[in-house]
Amino acid sequence: MTKTATDTSQDQEDLGEAGSQLSTAPKEELASLPGLGVIGWIRWFWRQLTSMRVALLLLLLLSLGAIPGSLIPQSGADINKVDDFRKAHTTLAPVYDKLGLFHVYSSVWFSAIYILLFVSLIGCIIPRTWQFVGQLRGRPPAAPKRLTRLPAYTTWRTEADPEQVREAALALLKKRRFRAHVAGDAVAAEKGYLRELGNLAFHLALIVLLISFAWGQLYKSDGTKLVVEGDGFSNSILQYDDFKSGSLFSNDDLVPFSFNLKQFRGTYELTGPNKGTPRTYQAKIDYSQGAFGKDTPTTIKVNEPLHIGDAKVYLVSHGYAPVITVRDGKGNVVYHDAVPLLPLDGNVTSNGVIKVMDGYKNAQGKSEQLGFQAFFVPTFDPKSGTMLSAFPALLNPLLAVNAYHGDLGVDSGIPQSVYQLDKTHMQAFKDGKGQLLKKLLQPGDTLTLPNGAGSVTFEKDVKQWAGFEIVQEPGSAWALGGAVTAIFGLAASLFIQRRRVWVRAVRGADGVTVVEMAGLGRSESAKVPDELGDLAGTLYDQAPGTPDADDESTESSVVPAEGAEK
Predict the structure, then answer these.
(1) Directed axis angle between helix 193-219 and helix 108-137, to 10°?
(2) Runs of H (alpha helix) within 264-315
(3) Which residue stretches belong to region Disordered (predicted)?
(4) 511 in the same domain as 451
(5) Looking at the 3D structure of the chain, how many domains does it have?
(6) pTM (two decimals)
(7) Which SS3 state, helix, strand or coil, does residue 480 take?
(8) Is residue 34 assigned to a domain?
(9) CA 399 → CA 17, 154, 323, 460, distances in Å?
(10) Which of 9, 173, 337, 381 is an S-S bond match for 189, by CB 3.0 to 4.6 Å?
């Protein structure tokens, strides 16, 4: 077999159909002015909109548009932060309002970019899909007249008949998973269609992601609820402590279910540098679906939510709810309940408010309201001298209470937090020294109010509460599938190369068969020459070369042609 040299001539001929359609990407053409008339302008606009440059520009604009949505408080996420921002930035707030920066994702300009990107992707994918389908239904193009013009080329002479060489080449290429057929005096083969399939899958996945994100933003709901042990929750907007939803969400979209919190259990590291670090948080509940569903016991853990239809119930927080009993001066119980207190640190040092709104009368028989500020530590350390918990578990609970009487302001019609005490119309109870009445209570202790006003008892039962977040994201599964498809599609388009191989076998003037092999890839890569060399070596074993007169090397060389068109 003779070693061949590449054709270094710069005057190369057009490869024609053999070098075409290695990609379904539209050809880049110089933009021309549209013809006169409305139709001409519409066609010009459509060509620009569906071009790759415009799609990338719209994707960049969409990314830039999401930046203010992440940095500026959004009315759909937290209206209180938006109000605080308006109060703190009186100059910027009106400008942001006009630009829609407090509701970026539902603004006109963001929606316009979103829709244009969506249309651009569809307009780009549809023609490429039909072109790719046409390529799959067709056959690889016939070999060019001059194979020496191709990037990778080799040749040798053999005594085998041309028909035998072509049959052997056809069988070899099909075995290597090439689509191959005999076209004239050569075998034409092609491989790497998954590249274009991955490219199309990537673009289709982007459309799925756009639809999923839009669907999720419009129909999503997210609410939180604090539930004390022994209490329950029904999935209704009125039951939530905090609730936000998409612009097209309605109450009927809530998944019907309910649950009761039977027990919350938390374990912590007892020793070592990580002392007090939570090891497990889990809430045992009984839940039911629909109005007449049967109770089903289950356990919700951190990062292991309960799935009920399209809703997910997450365990997000935890704290303590001391059981408090308040009596009037005659010993009548006017309040008895577990009071959830909010944690202030990692050791669950907590504070909160106890409000007695109805049923209480003072020593003179006048109806009043009572308010108590409560400060709770689950593990009190007498050596520290401070009301800071030394450990998050209930080892030595202690409750500090301050007492007030008067008007809580709950009947004014102005909403107020259940965790804050409005002292505007309240008076503090005083001790014998005229100081604010306060006392440290252990479980079972009682604080007696002065002048026969009643008492407050810290019961021995300390319950725990769990905070749940209930989320409905109808497009999350589609978004995940689109993201995974986009990753695999992009990987296929980057790492799989579309390439073609031709094997020509003709009888020379001296009666000896001349075998030529050439390869062409979509982009410059060492894989095409290497693969062609491997194919040539295998075919050479079936159609061995004839020694020439100069006794040159009997092994074939695959040499990339200098200046050859890719």
Answers:
(1) 150
(2) none
(3) 1-20, 526-566
(4) no
(5) 3
(6) 0.69
(7) helix
(8) no
(9) 86, 90, 11, 11
(10) 173
